[in-house]
Amino acid sequence: MPILEEEIRQFCSKYVLRLNTDLGQHFLIDREVLDTIVDAPNIQKEDTIVEIGPGIGVLTKELLSRAGKVIAIELDERLIPMLETYVEDNPKLEAIQGNALKTPMPTEPYKVVANIPYHITSPLLRHVFLESEVHPSSLTLLIQKEVARKICDTEHAGLLTILVGLFGTSEVLIDVPPAAFLPPPKVDSAVLHIECYPEPLANDEELEKIFLFTKLAFSKKRKMLSNSIGTQPDGSELLQKAEIDAQRRPETLTVEEWITLARSTKK
């Protein structure tokens, strides 16, 4: 049994910890994957890291060894004292018991590094990009492989592809099999790294229009734009003004084309 897995099993046994998989509690036990996650954001000693769903602190301990501060947001109140014990009461740790989707992000520069419950991937990205005063400089997330691949698939773009593309560039760093976790999840996973732009590619007004357009278009994603945006008042004229063929489907548009379409509404 690998050293990391043995250590985690012994810790869980000592504290009689039963994991709640309904909350996405799957502890990472693969050292190569752990190193990939921690290396990706190029953590500096002055950095603030936000970690969502730290569990007992397997990833947290590695982050604390590199960063100036780690803010760990954990929903399960049982795990807070175990987290603090596992990282040996490190003074650089700020543990918060709460829902990460409702917890304000820092107003100082920060990076997000997390093995998150997979069902919060989409709302978490919306939270940090659209609902937070300060956006992260990067996100390194261990998420469901299928979702990670979709985010990076610009040839068949989805709503998350566009959201992420407005705020940064994304890359899948490594695929992660179920055996890398305790207990193993039922799906394959992947490490996704998003390097964020200093500022989003569109301003707040343009972002609002982009999401109105994409929500409308992707509600009929197998239909041509002429059957979604084109049915709206001035829709056909806006597509023409943006030089976007109304016979195209929404998944074929680039982030830049959505921005152009939003800007075409300006008089």
Task: Please explain how this structure is put together.
It contains 10 helices and 9 strands. It has 267 residues and is α/β, with parallel strands linked by helices. The chain has 2 domains: 194 residues, Rossmann fold (3-Layer(aba) Sandwich); 60 residues, rRNA adenine dimethylase, C-terminal domain (Helicase, Ruva Protein, domain 3, Orthogonal Bundle), CATH 1.10.8. It has a 7-stranded mixed sheet with strand order 4-3-2-5-6-9-7. A two-stranded antiparallel ribbon has the order 1-8. The model has no long low-confidence stretch (mean pLDDT 94).
Give the topology:
Layout: H1 3-14, E1 27-28, H2 31-39, E2 48-52, H3 58-64, E3 69-74, H4 79-86, E4 93-97, E5 111-115, H5 121-130, E6 138-144, H6 145-152, H7 159-167, E7 168-176, E8 181-182, E9 189-196, H8 204-218, H9 235-241, H10 255-263
Parallel strand pairs: 2-3, 2-5, 3-4, 5-6
Antiparallel strand pairs: 1-8, 6-9, 7-9
Strand content is 15-25%
Number of domains: 2
Structural class: alpha/beta
| End-to-end gap | 66 Å
- CATH structural architecture of the largest domain: 3-Layer(aba) Sandwich
Largest sheet: 7 strands, mixed
- Poorly predicted ranges: none
Q: Which strand order do you get reading across the main beta sheet?
A: 4-3-2-5-6-9-7
Number of helices: 10
Write the H/E string, N to C. Answer: HEHEHEHEEHEHHEEEHHH
The name CATH uses for the topology of the largest domain is Rossmann fold
CATH C-level class of the largest domain is Alpha Beta
Number of E-type strands: 9
Apparent shape: elongated
> What's the rounded overall pLDDT mean?
94
Percent helix, as a range, is: 25-40%
Rounded to an integer in angstroms, the radius of gyration calculated over CA atoms is 21 Å
Question: CATH superfamily assignment of the largest domain?
Answer: Vaccinia Virus protein VP39
